[in-house]
Amino acid sequence: MALTDSLLSLVIFLPLVAAFILMFILRGEDAAAQHNAKVLALVATIANFVASIFILTSFDKNNTGFQLVETHEWLAGLQYKVGVDGISVLFVMLTTFLMPIVIGACWKVEHRVKEYMIAFLVLESLMIAVFCALDMILFYVVFEAGLIPMFLIIGIWGGKDRIYASFKFFLYTLLGSVLMLVAMLFMWWDAGTTDIPTLLNTHTFDSADFTILGITIVGGVQTLLFLAFFASFAVKMPMWPVHTWLPDAHVQAPTAGSVVLAAVLLKMGGYGFLRFSLPMFPEASAILADFVMTLSVIAIIYTSLVAMMQEDMKKLIAYSSVAHMGFVTMGIFAMNQQGIDGAIFQMISHGFISGALFLGVGVIYDRMHTRDIDAYGGLVVRMPVYALVFMLFTMANVGLPGTSGFVGEFLTLVGAFQANTWVAFGATTGVILSAAYALWLYRRVVFGDLIKESLKSIADMDTREKLMMAPLIVMTILLGVYPALVLDLIGPAVSNLLDNVATAQGVVETAAPVVSH
Q1: Cβ–Cβ contacts within 10 Å for residue 500, how many?
Q2: Are residues 210 and 151 in contact, defined by beta-carbon separation less than 8 angstroms?
Q3: Which residues in 24-54 are b (16+ Cβ under 10 Å) and which e?
Q4: Strands 67-73, 215-217: parallel, antiparallel or unpaired by DSSP?
């Protein structure tokens, strides 16, 4: 059996194996046992990243179908089926790339260390499984199961209001997905299968208008299914106005939890739109595209304005994440090559940049135990390396040319301009606002005179912190100057997605008069 025959399963289950070893084999709660738990988790995540590189080297970017597919019997009538295409493969790589950095950010944790490592290892397996799942019910199971370790990470190792934040996170995201489960069960009944490739390629859901309780449902069943999935993915992104769980979760989560939440978990919503909403409900996507893009522009402008009013660094960056996810949904529902290319690029780029920003907040929080912006000022005097690194990621967050942040925002704006010029105009004001709040944050924290006594002995970044930031710096600059690394990989898959959507819309439009007649 060739290595590629089970490569995806290896990458999915390797962190789970490490978690099993931590849970049942490594014993003890002393300092040595805690250190061993951290080392095992770090080695496992690095090994998983190395294994995932073979996924990338085995991937044929010109093949627009699913690759490295594995199928095994799972439950009655259901399959464990995994595979990757040009849209999902980079999300797998993003996850495995970031997890060793996340474990590095946990190095100073001393409370229930073994359980902390287990939570992150289980979470990694579930996140990778989400991006690889090719069975609809399998996708739902791992999509929802990922809530559990994140709920525990916030609820046990979070800040003083961690219980409130963890329950709010759990309930928002779980309740948002209930309608998606109902829709999936209907789709299973209607199509007779839960196989995602089959649903994408051979089945079309009815889009004929119908009336219920005096209300005409334009787009028919497709619209209802779209809205059910939208309820889940909009909360996960999150989109305005269902974004309020995110700032609380970020503020209360430990640094490593914030990195995973911003860099990977939010991307599941955007991935869901690309895997389900656009290709399976193309007519409904076209009908509701303006609605989604309007919500996206509101999110970009409103959350940018809210970010400008924050006094907590984490909360400011959290609102910034909502604004940047607004660019993602805007690009996806522009439904053209530049828009979707930009949306995927923005998600990958945001993973590096937001992760680095939360790590940056964690660096000074570990020293001063406060995230209040007013508690800082003049850090450049004592922390020149930190000032330089934080400046790079602040500029990348703004969208400075030469950084990956620019490419994603620019492409989504180009795509939006082709679809709706007013949407593009509104989103562009968000770019200006992002520069305002990001530079305001940087000036108050880093520049100015060092007058606070508590800051006069603060130490610059140590070797561990520099090693955590280094890969993120490399990727942010590399993708900024050579975006083809991502765009060449995703381009054929996006083009194929758009062709399939256009074909499905054409079939539906041709069939619609006959159905209505």
Answers
A1: 17
A2: no
A3: eeeeeeeeeebebbbebbbebbebbbebbee
A4: unpaired
Question: Bridge partners of 135?
Answer: 195
Helix-then-strand count for the chain, H and E: 22, 4
Distance CA 293, CA 300 (A): 10
Task: Tell me how long the chain is.
Answer: 517
Residue 281 in tokens: 């409900």
- What does pTM read for this prediction? 0.89
Burial 310-326 (b: 16+ CB within 10 A, else e): bebbbbbbbbbbbbbbb
Q: Specify the DSSP class assigned to residue 242.
A: S
What is d(CA 238, CA 301) in angstroms, rounded to the nearest whole number? 15
Alpha-carbon span 26 to 21, nearest angstrom: 6
Beta-bridge partner residues of 81? 71
Structure tokens given for 480: 């900024």
pLDDT in tens, 289-327: 888 999 999 999 999 999 888 888 888 998 998 898 999
* Cα–Cα distance measured from residue 337 to residue 267, given in angstroms and rounded to the nearest whole number: 19
Residue 481 near residue 405 (C-beta atoms within 8 A): no
d(CA 74, CA 142): 14
CA 258 – CA 401 distance, rounded (Å):
26
8-state DSSP, 239: P
Per-residue pLDDT band for 161 (boundaries 50, 70, 90) equals confident
Residue 151, both tokens: 């709920």
**Beta-bridge partners for 211:** 216
- How high is the pLDDT of residue 516? 30
More confident residue, 517 or 298: 298
Nearest to 509 by CA among 326, 359, 287, 337: 287
Nearest alpha carbon to residue 346 among 453, 221, 430, 278: 430
Report how far apart the first and last C-alpha atoms of the chain are (Å, whole number): 55
* Count of C-beta atoms within a 10 Å radius of residue 459: 9
